[in-house]
Structure formats: structure tokens, C-alpha cells
Amino acid sequence: MADYTLKLRRFDPESGKAAYWEDFGVDLPPERSVLDGILQARSRDDGSIAIRCSCQAAICGSCAVRINGKTALACNTKLGEAQDMARSRRGREEITVEPMGNFPVLKDLVVDMDAVHWKKVQRVVPWLLPEGDPPEREYIVPAEAMIDITQSMACIQCGACVGACLSLEADPEFIGPAALAKAYRFIGDPRDGQHEERLKDLAEDPHGLYDCTHCFACVEVCPKDVAPMNQIMRLRRMATSDYEIKDKNSGYGHEKAFVNLIEKYGTLHESQLLPRSYGQGSLIRSQVDPSSLKQLTASLPTVIGGLKSGKVSPVKALIHHKLPDQKQIRRIFHEIESEDERLELNLYIVGEEATEEEGAMAEGKGSET
Predict the structure, then answer these.
(1) What whole-number distance in Å separates Cα of residue 125 and Cα of residue 226?
(2) Is the pLDDT of residue 364 over 60?
(3) How far is Cα 8 from Cα 51, in angstroms, rounded to an integer?
(4) Could you give the domains of the chain?
(5) Residue 366: what pLDDT?
(6) Phi and psi (nearest 5°) for 111?
(7) Which strand ranges, in their side-by-side order, compose the sheet holding 95-98?
(8) What is d(CA 250, CA 273) in angstroms, rounded to the nearest whole number?
(9) Alpha-carbon distance 176 to 170, whole Å?
(10) pLDDT, mean of residues 107-120
């Protein structure tokens, strides 16, 4: 009897048949990878099995697939661990392997990276755009100035985050976590001279910065701890706090509304969040600004739904109680806002047990608080 059973999702567009599942027995020890199992099945049972692979060391990123429903690198997932996951998640022995989501499938486990991943990376202009004449030799940048973008530079372009992204599943036009992490790699680079222009472009795009729903899926599946969602949040903070880009998607207004409400009440005043967001953080502006009124009118179905569900009521809309010790929350706000620069512990560099001295190395604008 085989040590493991791989349940592969097969699809050959030239055959004209629909996709189907096929089981393959694998005789390998538990510390060997799922990729080793697939290659054994291809060598021993069916030479037509299609999968991309190269380095087999979690460096090239070409073997990203879904294993037991979760996107991962096949070469970086052990057979024993994959079977334990299958048992805990599905109560089955078979290790299911299928192509990544959010991509057109070319054959079996091979997806069209050009149609989605690379198309979106090209969208963010993935190269430096320096200002002025180039130097006589290379650009010189202090090492400490590059710390904040080192995490996004670790990306191996495997597309795992794209395959797992729920926002992309809902909106295929979303620029996506990998491309936005790549955008931060250049926007956070002091050699680039188009920071504000890049940020404005991504903020104004309805499928850009503010299309991310914070599902954390990209953070969970990234094999290199790039944490694309963290880079997206850094881009948002730069757009709103550093450059105050008042975008047509109300991303700036939503952040200001959320922060101002918490500072004032200590808890979220939901009935005011929507109008304040459309009014760039101001409730009064939302009632007099034509564009804000237009957005509010378009949101009436949402308001009606909130009234029907009881989440919003006329009383709640007018009266929202503050926390008993709200002055302490305001004190925290004022203390943080009094700082000239944001201070971040870049845990990707200094580790989770970082000291204050190590964290000070990561001081600078665009950092995560």
C-alpha cells in the first residue's frame, strides 16, 4: 500500500473534457515534499501530469498550488504535514492538490501567470523613476534608508497571495496583493522621485489601494513573510497621512472619519461613519458638498438595509454615548500625533523580540505603527 494518496485535479483544454480528480499513490517518507510526490506520480504513473517547478527549494516560486484548499509552494510543504492537514480539515487521508484560484488554468496544476499576476505587476510600473539627471556612477543610498522596503523586496513572485486573495475573487480587476507590495518596494525607496504620483494613481484607481478588504489571506499563505497586506496598509498611510491625497474612492475620508470618531467617542459611531467618509472626515461637509451628497444618495440602499436589520436606528444616529474615561483615549491620540515621525519596529528585520534600540533603526515616514 502506498504511503500517501495524492488527489490531483486534472484538466487538459485540448481534450475538450471538464476538469476531474485523479488519485495517485506515493511511496515516500513524510519529510519529502508534496512536489516530490507529484513528480514521482508523473515519472511512475502518468507522464502527462503538468506542474511548474524549478529550484525545488522555495526560491523560484514556480510550484505554487492549492494543497487541501490552501495556497502554498508544493516544494515547501511536507507530505506528512499535508496529510495531517487533510485529516484535520476534511477528515480524509487524501492530499488534494489543485491549481491556484483567481487564475485561468492552462493544464492540470499550471496556471496562466501572464494573464493575472504579471499583468498586475506591470500595472504599478515596477521600476525606479528617479528625478533629475542620473549620477555618473551608481545611486548611493544609506543602508538604513532601505530597511523599510526589505520585506517587500523578499517577494519571489510565486503568486500565492494572488491565488488566495478574496478581494480578487470578488473583483478580478483588483490590482492585487503582489502588485501592491511591489508598488511599495518603489514608493518606499528614497531613490524614486514619483512617490506622490504613484500613490495618487493607486488611490484614485477604484480597483487599487482601497479595494483590499483585510482578509489576511495573503499574509497567511506567503512563503517568504512578505505580508502583502501590511505593505498595502503602509501605502494607505502614506497616501492619507503623508500626502493627504483626497481620492474619489473616499479612502482618505473613511480613514479620517474612523479615526475622528474613535477619538471623540471611544467606539465607532456607525451611523456617522458613511456620511463622514464621503465628506472627507467631516459630517458637515457631507451635507453641503455636491459630490458627497451624490455618494450618500447612491448609498441609500445600504442605509435602508441598516435600518431594517436594526444595526442603525434614528436614536442611534442622533445619540452615541462616549466611553466613561474618554479623555484617556484622547490623551493617547494627542501623544501619538505630537510625534514628528512614525516609529516602527520592522519585525521582518529585527524579529518579534526587538528592543527599543533595534526598533529605532526602522524610524522614518511610511513606517507601520
Answers:
(1) 19
(2) no
(3) 11
(4) 4-111 (3.10.20.30), 114-247 (1.10.1060.10), 253-337 (no CATH)
(5) 42
(6) -110, 165
(7) 20-26, 4-10, 95-98, 64-67, 70-73
(8) 11
(9) 11
(10) 98
